[in-house]
Amino acid sequence: MTTLLAAPAMRQGRRSVARRQAIGPENVKPQTPFIPPSPIAATQSGETLHRVQPGVGLTGVHPAMVKAVAGLYAAMVAAFWLVFGHGEAMLALGFITVLGLMFFGLLTGMSLLADTPAPGERIRSLNDCLAGRVIIDTGWISGREAALQMLTLPACLLVTAVVLGAVYRFTAG
Length: 173
Prior knowledge:
Number of helices: 6
Order of helices and strands: HEHHHEHEEH
Structural class: mainly alpha
Largest sheet: 2 strands, parallel
């Protein structure tokens, strides 16, 4: 019985010995030293961070839709602060506010590093974006579908915040 249980361990041990023998000093590649990236000097303009992508102003999501998502989230947090912004709930609301600022700050920062239209290239209007097509990771969708996908969840969260606030105000003694 013990030999059956020990057999896999012995096979594993043989593989380990064979692996150690195969990885001798002559088979190990020398590691390249870690060179930290050079920081961007504060005197440089932000243009060095942009990656010009032709056509992105005509195929991407309009910036107003991203601002609408951030605005709906800010309205939800403001509704929670108006209703629950006292006592023990202030700590949780503070965390929610900080996390929201971090999220949308990173979203803004990453959009600075994202593909940008070439200088002088026309960027379509919000109406053109909604009436046209938008390219996403899985292919093309209509602009209205993109807006619906982006704005549905934040709008539902805002409605939930208002309903919870109303229920709390009407039932709190």
